[in-house]
Amino acid sequence: MAPDPTAEPAVDRSTAVGDIPDDALVLLIGPAASGKSTWAAANFRPSQVLSSDSFRELVADDASDQTASRDAFQLLHTVARARLQRGLLTVVDATNLQRSARKPLVALAARFGRPAVAVVFDVPLGVLLARNAHRPRMVPEDVIRRHHAQLAAAIDDVRNEAYAQVLHA
Q1: pLDDT tens, 42-98?
Q2: Overall domain count for the chain
Q3: Looking at the domain assignment, is residue 158 inside a domain?
Q4: Which candidate, 135, 151, 126, 168, places its Cα nearest to that of 39?
Q5: What H or E segment, with its residue span, contains residue 109?
């Protein structure tokens, strides 16, 4: 039987996860349905992963309520700051497709002398759409398409941002 190209990626811990410093800020960068949350759950403890969806659910009882994003990200940044100040590995599970989303987090890491690591999830559009169709909480197709279009610019930008490492999952 041929492997399903739309299935979530097999987790490969050799994707340099072992090389990520224990006090790093790790930014997951990729469209919705690219496998960020699955990869994070397989590679890190739940306490280490700060998910934008989880923070939306905390403040609005609905992980998909985009009107809660401002409050959710304020809390996420507060928790990230506390963890980085303590020297704890901190993984931010959000799309992080805009430089404006990444910049304050990378600055937080620098403020506390912590390395920042980017993990990029570059998945073909067709695979994203197929995965999304099988998710319990689907993202609107136009959002997936917009995220995919934004990814190329994010990949270019990441090369010029202050990361200790850029990994590809």
Answers
A1: 999 999 999 999 999 999 998 888 889 999 999 999 999 999 999 999 999 999 999
A2: 1
A3: yes
A4: 168
A5: helix 99-111
Residues in a beta bridge with 29: 120
Residue 60 phi, psi (nearest 5): -135, 0
Q: Which two tokens stand for residue 29?
A: 């960068």
Q: Could you list the residue range(s) of the whole structural domain that residue 80 is in?
A: 17-168
Helix (H) or strand (E) holding 82: helix 69-85
List, in order, residues 6 or more apart from 85 with CB less than 8 Å away: 112
Q: At what angle do helices 69-85 and 99-111 cross, to 10 degrees?
A: 20
Query: Amino acid identity of 120?
Result: V
Contact predicate 93/52, CB 8 Å: yes
Indicate the pTM of the whole model: 0.89
Query: Distance between CA 73 and CA 102 in Å, rounded?
Result: 12
In a domain, 12, yes or no: no
Integer Cα distance of 153 and 137 in angstroms: 27
DSSP 136-162: SSPPPHHHHHHHHHHHHHHHHHHHTS-
